[in-house]
Amino acid sequence: MKMRRSKLESYEDVLGALIKKPSAIGSIAYETNMDCGLLRQRLDFLIKNGLVKERISGKKRLYAITERGATVLKTLNFQKYLERVANTVRMMDEAVHIIPIISDDTNEKEKKARENENY
Q1: pLDDT for residue 5
Q2: Among residues 16, 51, 62, 100, which is most buried (max CB within 10 A)?
Q3: 61 occurs within a structural domain
Q4: CA pair distance 8, 103, nearest whole angstrom
Q5: DSSP structural state of residue 1
Q6: Distances (CA, A) of 24 to 51, 53, 105
Q7: Alpha-carbon gap, residue 5 to 108, rounded angstroms
Q8: Residues 73-94: tens digit of each pLDDT
Q9: Does residue 105 fall inside a structural domain?
Q10: Residue 109: inside a domain, yes or no?
């Protein structure tokens, strides 16, 4: 079962698709796996907030990320990176507390095994 993505995640997906190159709505919909109607709503919001701009090139309507949009995307990506680092540090901290316990248990078992060998 596929989890629904949040609005923030869908905005992030759109910005991520546009960081590569300006694209038409069909290309963005394909890359983000988003319904065109919903994508249009997301694009309208991003345009209104100055994160994406709309260009008309011949008969095509293209969407491009703005400098502000690129900055927001970098900030979101950096925040995810920091969350991964924090989770890694948390797991390492837990491991540091568990290792001595495991080590003590192993030492006790080895000690008992040697005592049994001596009998």
Answers
A1: 76
A2: 51
A3: yes
A4: 45
A5: -
A6: 16, 12, 62
A7: 49
A8: 999 888 887 888 888 888 888 8
A9: no
A10: no
